[in-house]
Specification:
- This protein is α+β, with helices and mostly antiparallel strands.
- It has helices at 14-18, 42-51; strands at residues 3-5, 23-26, 29-32, 57-59.
- The strands form two sheets. The protein has a two-stranded antiparallel ribbon. Strands 2-3 form a two-stranded antiparallel ribbon.
- It binds iron/sulfur cluster (SF4).
- The site of iron/sulfur cluster (SF4) has 14 residues, from helix 1.
- Iron/sulfur cluster binds at residues 5, 9-15, 30, 51-52, 54, 56-57.
């Protein structure tokens, strides 16, 4: 499982508010920290996907 953040991202920070370990705001926009993901963050991952106002977070 991996996450892809599309160019639709408007840097609103909603996903970072859900989980600031796996999602992070950088100078280049919001990134997903794959290496920091653990099973305990599973619910947060789905909460972040549903909280994104522009549907920019995709599982693949
Ligand atoms: S919630 Fe969506 S639009 Fe907002 S920062 Fe995260 S990926 Fe970008």
């Amino acid at each position: 499982m991996n996450i892809f953040i599309t160019n639709n991202c408007i840097n609103c920070g909603a996903c970072v508010q859900v989980n600031s370990t796996i999602f992070e705001i950088t100078k280049n926009g919001v990134i997903y920290n794959k290496e920091k993901y653990t099973e305990e963050f599973s619910d947060d991952l789905y909460d972040a996907i549903y909280s994104c106002p522009v549907n920019a977070i995709h599982l693949y």
